[in-house]
Amino acid sequence: MTQRLDHFSAAPELFQPMLEQEKLLKESGLEHSLVELVKLRASQINGCAFCIHMHSHDMRAHGESEDRMQLLNAWRESSLYSDRERAALAWTEALTRVESTGAPDADYEGVARHFTPREQVALSLLVAAINAWNRIAIGFRTPHPAAQEANAA
């Protein structure tokens, strides 16, 4: 895969609002592990190799288990995720696939049971943000570091 454009170099100032939002979301009160599960799951759905690589490495660095990362795409069948995480993952899938799901009431009700109104907003913005990052990385064919290492060899 050949990168189409280095979007950060081409227009760094246009990314400032997204980077500020990332900072605000980190300070939103959502647990780091939950934030990374959401980012990884949306990136899996969207097929964003760059983001999957980045978030799995970040999760590993923060002590996330390999099993929880490996089983994330089958979270509904695994007992490794809390009810709060399950609600967040269902909401992540619903919003990431909003064209086919319509954000069902059942998924929202799960989020409303486990998250405060402020956390619901933060979670929804988090899902929207990672979907935006995925689309930018995929659109410009941003290579993940392993691809860069392979190309260098």
Tell me about this structure.
It is a single chain. With 153 residues, the chain is mainly α. The chain contains 10 helices and no strands. Helix 3 (32-46) packs antiparallel against helix 4, helix 3 (32-46) packs across helix 9 (117-139) and helix 6 crosses helix 9 (117-139). The longest helix has 23 residues, at 117-139. It is globular. It starts with 6 loop residues before the first helix and ends with a helix. The mean pLDDT is 94.
In short:
The chain is mainly α and about 150 residues long. About 70% of the residues lie in helices and about 0% in strands.
Low-confidence stretches: none
Distance between the termini: 15 Å
Could you tell me the number of beta strands?
0
Mean pLDDT, to the nearest integer, reads: 94
Helical content class: 55-70%
Q: How big a fraction of the residues is strand?
A: under 5%
The tally of helices reads 10
How do the SSEs run, as a string of H and E? HHHHHHHHHH
What is Rg?
Answer: 16 Å
Biggest beta sheet summary: none
Shape type: globular
Strand pairing plus helix content: what structural class?
mainly alpha
Keyphrases for this structure?
10 helices, 153 residues
Q: What's the layout of helices and strands?
A:
Blueprint: H1 7-10, H2 16-26, H3 32-46, H4 49-61, H5 66-70, H6 83-96, H7 98-101, H8 105-114, H9 117-139, H10 145-152
Helix pairs in contact: 2-9, 3-4, 3-6, 3-9, 6-8, 6-9
